[in-house]
Amino acid sequence: MSVEVRLEHIVKAFDTTIAVNDVSLEIKEGELFFLLGPSGCGKTTCLRILAGFYEPDSGKLMFDDREMSRVPPHKRNTGMVFQNYALWPHMTVFENVEYGLSLRKIDKDSRKKKVHEVLDVVQMPEYADRPVNKLSGGQQQRIALARALVVEPDVLLLDEPLSNLDAKLRLEMRQEIKRIHLQAGATAVYVTHDQQEAIHLADRMAIMRDGSIIQVGTPREIYRFPINPFVASFIGETNFISGKIQSLANGTAEIETEIGVLRSTTIYHDFTDGEAVTCCIRPESIRVGDVIAETGANQLSAKVLSATYLGRIEEYHLALAEKLTAKAILYNPRTHGKDVGERLSITVSTQDIIPLPAEAPYTHEEEPEVL
Ligand code: ATP
User: Fold this and answer.
1) Which CATH class is domain 5-229?
2) Residue 56 CA to ligand 1 centre (angstroms)
3) If we measure between CA atoms, which residue out of 295, 293, 282 comes closest to residue 241?
4) In what order do the strands lie in the sheet with 252-257?
5) Where are the domains of the chain?
6) What is the pTM of this model?
7) Which fold would CATH assign to domain 237-357?
8) Is-contact 81 156, C-beta < 8 A?
9) Is 49 in the pocket of ligand 1 (CB under 6 A)?
């Protein structure tokens, strides 16, 4: 059975740190919902409030129409999967998975049946008798999932479940988590720093910052229609160009910038004439190939600062003005790429110039990967 999860104005502080600041969310029954945001934004605290490890200072937590805010963890019927698996190393796979059922006083035959069913779901039936310390990291994480699922949780909670795995295994396990979630059908809340994991798996996600929810949406909504420069830069890569609204008419904005007037037809904020904005342009929306004349496209001139051939794509670092650079991605690069120093004309569709409120973007500590 799965439930709808509602957080209503939840606040949680530790001394002077407000870890969760008036968070309200509705997570639909059966949904795979992600909490995503930079380190310290309050994701884990939210998850721990859902599990019952922390009580909120104020606000309400509801599972369907049952208030859970102060219900102890073992009475919530949640299953939790941790980053470090938290398995008992010297117990067998069977014993680890069975443990939660023994606590619930389920008879031996039913326990055995349920453990084998769930080992089938995680595709580890032949490992029942092996001690878990003789399993690989990926296999241990499957067992941790099996242990959380065996109790048929109303809500499955996943705390960075893949972050201890190597890159290749993470990709494999992503697919597995998707499949297992579909098969188990539980409402699931998944915490991660990894935007790619979230985009890949999430039905919907909440982007958090400093204890607050900044935006909730499907991966497509968040990537395509970020609410502000912080979200645009946290999810995927973005070029930003500062400007000022020159005119707004018939769903089109003319934006004055240092590289000329940019035209946008993707406007979902209420801007006024003269308002300062930050234009978001994704690297893949800059056309650097043979320029196709498109009515209404923004045509700009650029100089190639660097070109990196990566097989499937070619990445360009372009100078648009003396102190303004942009990243562009060309898909399916053919014969000869552009040369460093080459001057070229680039175009961006009016749909792909997205004016956002003029706020500071998020600065990734490391160069983010291309989506
Ligand atoms: P990370 O991605 O690094 O795990 P997070 O988004 O999960 O971060 P939280 O662990 O929820 O963030 O922490 C939110 C804020 O609350 C941080 O400033 C953190 O230092 C603080 N905090 C969390 N747990 C405690 C605690 N038990 N005692 C004191 N402060 C805490």
Assistant:
1) alpha beta
2) 14
3) 282
4) 260-264, 252-257, 239-249, 276-281, 354-357
5) 5-229, 237-357
6) 0.89
7) OB fold (Dihydrolipoamide Acetyltransferase, E2P) (2.40.50)
8) yes
9) no
